[in-house]
């Protein structure tokens, strides 16, 4: 009996210590004087947020109850594949969705008015975002100035309305199958009559539409798309980036996930740097050192534009490997990888890549030093690929031993 009890206690203790929750965010509540109510937020912070001194772009997510988990997954997956930066996600839970996400509309039909109940609160909700929520987030978290808003259905309608009403509020708008069947005078106007002075520079707008054909929603989405294109053609100085992605294979419900995934890729496409692939292309950039400096300058300017540190790590690494593939430029790969280490000193990959360059150039001791540094750094993380870094070091040590014995 004693042994049975003892085994049970051991198993219970082991179970309690071996099971850890996988947490993608937390909830908090703020009070809005403008809306005269408490609002629940769902917050996702990037991995290693507490240890970092960096600031992060902020994604404001409407309809968080439906969209928070898949938005977090998309952001983390895209970052893992070096396509977007880490970011803070602020999910906004609804209280009166139809009220908050719709503009005032005298032309709304009696049928829709009866079904939707209280509507027309979009201006107050914009004021809540502008005067209360965004200042709260920027005071509470390590928030960079770069802000994205994501809205689906009525949330997409709200995004379109906000862009036309107060375009400077967000840097990028991601509007998913917006409910443009909803009548509103501002949305029905041409851009030239809305932006009579000028549009805030360097805005980005991404728009999708699912397999929806009823009513005039599709026609209004297509009209909006043409208005964007016409305005961009006439006002190139505005730096407005726009893309319309029809998704006829998706339903109104399923279109959300691929829209966020593809929309974020489009928004951050300027952070994907085009690397010279031939010796001629490298020499046209001022030679290897000129090409390295061009990468550093590009990302410094991009960071100033976006308001947060846009990493040059992947571009410098890709440039170093480009040099390794060009026989006459092999030796310059070390310069690119050293520049990568200098600007990204906390990256295990930067040291690993430098080690590979040294190894290829026959500088084995320097390669070993870099591999050891990379292995030590990655073991301090939870990255499961540390074994590859160990294998690089073990294989190099075998090569060094064989060379010493010859």
From TrEMBL:
Residues 1-21 form the signal peptide. SUPFAM superfamilies: alpha/beta-Hydrolases, TPR-like. PROSITE patterns: TPR, TPR_REGION. It holds the Pfam family Esterase. GO terms for molecular function: hydrolase activity. Keywords: Hydrolase, Signal, TPR repeat. TPR repeats lie at residues 348-381. Belongs to the esterase D family. PANTHER family: SIDEROPHORE TRIACETYLFUSARININE C ESTERASE, SIDEROPHORE-DEGRADING ESTERASE (EUROFUNG). This is Alpha/beta hydrolase-fold protein.
